[in-house]
């Protein structure tokens, strides 16, 4: 029979393709040459669970964004200071003006002549959301640290609530940013790829360990089960 006329199984060979297919870095195996094991199934389930957990973690981190704090020297002192004030004074006063940025502060005077003194150290602060420093995404405000002192004064002193301001020459810039959607997916792909590679190596090493352990066990059982007369001929 001529060699060209001999019937050959084409399924045993790779699929016919163009020259470009010779550079394929992802060769495919035929289903009949793939062996599925229970160990591989367990590793697959473990990798799927870990991948879902890491994906959820990355999604939460991307959704919350990140916040960075930067200190800089204040180049100039502003002449306007925003003050938020909620105060209740148990007295008749039609025109009360106290420049007090304190909030949720309650003090009771034990006598009619009492003096409350607050010392504020104010730090100008700029809050920015996103990398674009537009007016819609930027809030100019102030932070402060406070120390207080209160005491009962005599009849010749002036009672009341007194606030002293000390504006620091330091500017605090708080910027909240969130990575782009493409960058987020690149991180997710890197994380999932790392899980797949680690899972593949873990499965390979576990199968190698099981195979060597089985061979060692077979050799040990063979020596133990061999009689003394089996070696004499």
UniProtKB/TrEMBL annotation:
<comment type="similarity">
    <text>Belongs to the ERGIC family.</text>
</comment>
<keyword id="KW-0256">Endoplasmic reticulum</keyword>
<dbReference type="GO" id="GO:0000139">
    <property type="term" value="C:Golgi membrane"/>
</dbReference>
<keyword id="KW-0931">ER-Golgi transport</keyword>
<dbReference type="GO" id="GO:0006888">
    <property type="term" value="P:endoplasmic reticulum to Golgi vesicle-mediated transport"/>
</dbReference>
<keyword id="KW-0333">Golgi apparatus</keyword>
<dbReference type="GO" id="GO:0006890">
    <property type="term" value="P:retrograde vesicle-mediated transport, Golgi to endoplasmic reticulum"/>
</dbReference>
<comment type="function">
    <text>Plays a role in transport between endoplasmic reticulum and Golgi.</text>
</comment>
<dbReference type="GO" id="GO:0030134">
    <property type="term" value="C:COPII-coated ER to Golgi transport vesicle"/>
</dbReference>
<dbReference type="InterPro" id="IPR045888">
    <property type="entry name" value="Erv"/>
</dbReference>
<dbReference type="Pfam" id="PF13850">
    <property type="entry name" value="ERGIC_N"/>
</dbReference>
<dbReference type="InterPro" id="IPR039542">
    <property type="entry name" value="Erv_N"/>
</dbReference>
<feature type="domain" description="Endoplasmic reticulum vesicle transporter N-terminal">
    <location>
        <begin position="21"/>
        <end position="99"/>
    </location>
</feature>
<dbReference type="GO" id="GO:0033116">
    <property type="term" value="C:endoplasmic reticulum-Golgi intermediate compartment membrane"/>
</dbReference>
<keyword id="KW-0813">Transport</keyword>
<dbReference type="GO" id="GO:0005789">
    <property type="term" value="C:endoplasmic reticulum membrane"/>
</dbReference>
<protein>
    <recommendedName>
        <fullName>Endoplasmic reticulum-Golgi intermediate compartment protein</fullName>
    </recommendedName>
</protein>
């Amino acid at each position: 029979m001529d060699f060209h006329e001999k019937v050959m199984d084409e399924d045993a060979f790779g699929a016919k393709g163009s020259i470009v297919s010779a550079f394929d870095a992802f060769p495919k195996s035929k289903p009949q040459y793939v062996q599925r094991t229970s160990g591989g199934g367990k590793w697959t389930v473990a990798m799927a669970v870990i991948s879902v957990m890491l994906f959820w973690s990355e999604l939460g981190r991307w959704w919350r964004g990140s916040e960075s704090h930067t200190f800089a020297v204040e180049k100039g002192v502003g002449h306007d200071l925003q003050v938020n004030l909620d105060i209740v004074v148990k007295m008749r006063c039609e025109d009360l003006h106290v420049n007090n940025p304190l909030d949720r502060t309650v003090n009771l005077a034990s006598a009619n002549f009492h003096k409350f003194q607050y010392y504020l150290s104010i730090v100008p602060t700029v809050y920015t959301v996103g990398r674009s420093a537009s007016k819609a995404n930027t809030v100019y405000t102030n932070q402060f640290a406070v120390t207080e002192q209160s005491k009962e004064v005599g009849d010749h002193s002036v009672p009341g609530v007194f606030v002293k301001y000390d504006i620091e020459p330091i500017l605090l810039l708080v910027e909240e940013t969130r990575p782009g959607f493409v960058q987020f997916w690149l991180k997710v792909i890197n994380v999932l790829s790392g899980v797949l590679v680690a899972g593949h190596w873990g499965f390979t090493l576990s199968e190698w360990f099981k195979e060597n352990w089985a061979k060692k066990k077979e050799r040990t059982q063979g020596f133990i089960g061999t009689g003394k007369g089996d070696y004499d001929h």
